[in-house]
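The instructor's notes for this session suggest beginning with a concrete chain rather than abstract definitions. Hand out the sequence below and ask the class to guess, before any prediction is shown, which regions might be ordered.
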Amino acid sequence: MDQRRVTLADVAKKAGVHVTTVSLALRNHPRLPETTRQRIQNLAKEMGYRPDPLLRALVAYRGKIMERRNTPTLAYVTNWNTRWGWKKVTAHPDFYAGAEAMANQLGYQLEHFWLNEPGQTQGRLSRMLYARGIGGVIIASHGREMGDALEFEWQNFSAVKIDYYPHQPVLHNVTNNQCDIIRVAMQKVMAAGYRRIGFVMHRGWDHAVDHLWTAGYLCEQQHLKVREQLPAHIFPAEIPVERWFNESNAPVEADFDAFEKWFTLHRPEVVISKGSFVLPLLERMKVKVPRDVAFVDVFLEDFSGAHAGVRQNHKTVGAAAVEMLAAQLQHNKVGLPSIPTTTFVEGTWCDGRSCPVRAKSAGEKSTLAVKQRV
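After discussion, reveal the predicted structure:
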């Protein structure tokens, strides 16, 4: 015969407290002293208490359908050079749109806070959010020139970061899987028959993702013969990191002379990059896509079929950040995580006319025919 399930009431009776106190302790609610929470959690574990997932689902469902007087707010904190400057660059507007849609779906409202508001400081914003009862914070659109550390009173907040900056403190993070995005692009062009594969990337952008772009490119290059492996064209050349940051906050393209030299020397059959980085240069060189060189855009935004590339699914990044934050809030997980996690959002490959499948050479066809006869 199955043993009766241990309930909250059983734990409360054993601990000598009200059942509400047990509920708060198991949800790690900051209203209770840490020693009380730890004592009740240990006791519940010893007694074999397990939460009922069906009951939790019912509570969550009731929370959604019951009208709330005040919709809880999540803070979307940006640290850009201007209040809305992040809306003018790749990815960041979609991060926000995805986060806002998911917040609304889960019953929250998303409110934007700019860290560089006149007279604003990190400590002042932190205290203001806490005073307003905002316990959930998304750190997003942090300009790389704005510093690499953020000092909030983290013990008061559940927090999630979108992308890599700032690196300190180390928070749970959601970002695009840039390493696998370039790997997928490499795999697709190799499957289409290309071997001399060129990669062009802004140095500041590669730096911002902890060099995962170049890591993915070099990883997939190992499947090519040594004579087919081309050096990546990382621009601009070695210069102070401050300039990388400034240039990566605005639409830029590779230096024409340096790019033309690299292109002429290595004769790539296909170039993998961001369209705005290289397409104007190819046009200036009178190089036709795909007649003279194929092209793959790893920041694909045109889905008409003109260009092959990878859709980055930025809105999914924002939505995943809100889902992660909501889970932390539900379980009252506040403060800096002892073991931070990173959630990677995959890209989606899209075929396009800029990278057609290459016709097999006569030698390749002959070899294939021999294999088929054998």
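Then share the key points. The two ends are 65 Å apart (CA to CA). Confidence is low (pLDDT under 50) at residues 365-374.
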